[in-house]
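Long-time lurker. I teach an intro course on protein structure, and each term I like to show students one example going from raw sequence to a predicted 3D structure in token notation. This year I'd like something fresh instead of my usual example. Would anyone be willing to generate the tokens for the chain below so I can use it in lecture? Attribution to the forum is fine with me.
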Amino acid sequence: MYEHNVLHREAPLMYKLRRKLFSQNFLYNRKLISRLVGSSSIVKKDLVLEIGPGKGIITEQLLQQAQHVLAVEIDSYLVTYLRNRFIHADNLTLYQADILSFKLPIVSYKVFANIPFSIEGKIIRYLIDAKNPPQDCYLVMMKELAYRLSAPHTENLFSLMHKPWFDFSLYHHFQRTDFTPIPKVDAVVLRFTKRKEPLISWSERITYQKFIEIGFGQGLPVSRNLKSRYGNDLVARALHNVNISKKTKPSELSLQQWISLYQSFVKI
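-- Reply from a regular --
Happy to contribute to a lecture. Here you go:
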């Protein structure tokens, strides 16, 4: 009896320590989660990947809405808890693993997850740069980073390198009190969806991204950044073909202008 009581008292403390270790803030409002998952694109035929399910409050809703859920949790304590909680869930496969070394599905899948703020950038890159990226992805993350990645107003290096194949949007804005513990930063759900018709062929993805990386450079005019690799004549012809000034800086060009400039280089 004494041992049972001690373990019962220690469990919440251990949970808090682990939560701090993995830098995760958890949602607890079931009505809010039900609304967010319910209004997503997830339907009964879908395979869904959940990253860092915690105590399973999002998992619970996903199991009702998807055909099958793959849940990847790094914390052994929480994995044991989840296995007990969802012992009768036939459409759940639970893995104890680090998502950054986890082998992603080779079939079509979607993602819905509340990811640790400390590694959210790494997780997004792991998903979006995968050989088989998700068809649709909803990630709870810091508002500041979500705005930078989605670039709703001015394009940046990341957005330019990925928007030809993905649509980015801000799906939901949270109150800080929606989480426990209450975070010191604002959070949103960043959504990115794989385009049905990409703006550039998938086979050109690496070539295009390398072009953007060179063209963006260190903030100098696009012409100066590109000349170091392609030479004056080629750059001058390509810029002329798409009516872009030699003095234009990388952040001043729209996504469509960058695509047109890339295609101009390809033609030449």
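Some talking points for your students: Residues 2-21 form the longest helix (20 residues). Residues 53 and 73 are 6 Å apart (CA to CA).
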